[in-house]
Write a structure and sequence with these properties.
Order of helices and strands: HEEEEEEEE
Oligomer: single chain
Number of helices: 1
Strand content: 25-35%
Shape: globular
Strand order of the largest sheet: 2-1-4-7
Structural class: mainly beta
Number of strands: 8
Radius of gyration: 22 Å
């Protein structure tokens, strides 16, 4: 592995070059780029198999015990209080589509002018 990097010549091996001392490739397998970092919150799966424990409050009158999945807001702005053990994701589209515009940790709350739906695992 070090010999391959050395053959590239000065200035050609380093963390930005695919064949470097830091890479995980060798003569028996091709080099691969490292995986991108994962966000600290879950991505919404198509079918949630388990529910969060606790209560999710979406103003004005949605109170969901042990929530799981996607919930659409009834009014705007979206006002959310997350009293569960999971992160809640606020989306700018209905049915948990579009961009995640806020991540609400357990015990947190938020008001989002453009929030339309909330996902929780």
């Amino acid at each position: 592995m070090l010999r391959r990097a050395a053959r590239l010549g000065p200035g050609r091996s380093g963390p930005d070059h695919p064949v470097s001392k830091e890479s995980s490739c060798d003569a028996s397998q091709p080099c691969s780029a490292p995986s991108p970092p994962r966000p600290p919150w879950p991505s919404p799966p198509p079918d949630a198999a388990s529910a969060a424990t606790g209560t999710l409050f979406i103003a004005p009158n949605q109170t969901i015990e042990n929530p799981s999945g996607c919930y659409n807001a009834q009014i705007f702005p979206l006002i959310l209080r997350n009293e569960t053990n999971e992160y809640a994701l606020v989306y700018d589209g209905s049915n948990c589509t579009g961009q995640v515009i806020a991540v609400v940790p357990p015990g947190g709350s938020t008001t989002q002018e453009f929030g339309q739906s909330v996902y929780i695992a």
